[in-house]
Design a protein that fits this description.
Blueprint: E1 7-11, H1 17-24, E2 31-38, E3 42-43, E4 46-55, H2 57-74, E5 80-86, E6 88-91, E7 95-103, H3 106-123, E8 126-132, E9 137-140, H4 145-149
Parallel strand pairs: 1-5
Antiparallel strand pairs: 2-7, 3-4, 4-6, 4-8, 5-7, 8-9
Length: 151
């Protein structure tokens, strides 16, 4: 059922919000829902200096495609799915991931976009290491079973 209207990318370059929006745009859309994950300046009460992302790119891109396929099955009117993820060192405020879903109706678009980011965080082989201001660092488990329970 793949519609071949999706676009997936893993890159060390800065992510371009307009480019992602343009990939998700379609004359049949009543909405384009975008979710941008950004590097925040703290986790809990620990001040963050920067993040570092790694990915197993071939498998991650396959997971992105599987997510799109699942969206097309659950929300069949969806006509675009775009997932771009950045790897490497990211500073506070930079965008680490953008998910965009184009669909005729906003409700389904919101639901599909949330499903995409939650599923990505749970299934994709993308890992995050947090570096704190005090000089320590730790690989962070970005997977959350609770996020998937609502689906």
């Amino acid at each position: 059922m793949t519609k071949n209207l999706e676009h997936f990318r893993i890159t060390t370059a800065s992510l371009d919000l307009q480019e992602v929006y343009d990939f998700a745009a379609d004359p049949g859309n009543g909405s384009v829902n975008l979710m941008c994950g950004t590097v925040r300046n703290q986790t809990g009460k620990r001040p963050v200096d920067f993040l570092e992302y790694e990915a197993y790119e071939p498998m991650a891109l396959k997971v992105f495609a599987e997510i799109a396929e699942q969206i097309y099955q659950k929300w069949p009117e969806t006509n675009r799915v775009v997932i771009h993820h950045r790897i490497g060192r990211l500073c506070i405020g930079e965008i680490s991931v953008i998910v965009a879903v184009g669909s005729p109706h906003r409700k389904e678009g919101f639901e599909a976009c949330q499903y995409a980011i939650d599923t990505l965080k749970y299934n994709a082989p993308v890992w995050k290491k947090e570096y704190w201001v005090d000089g320590s660092s730790e690989w962070v488990n970005v997977k959350s079973a609770e996020a998937m329970e609502s689906y």
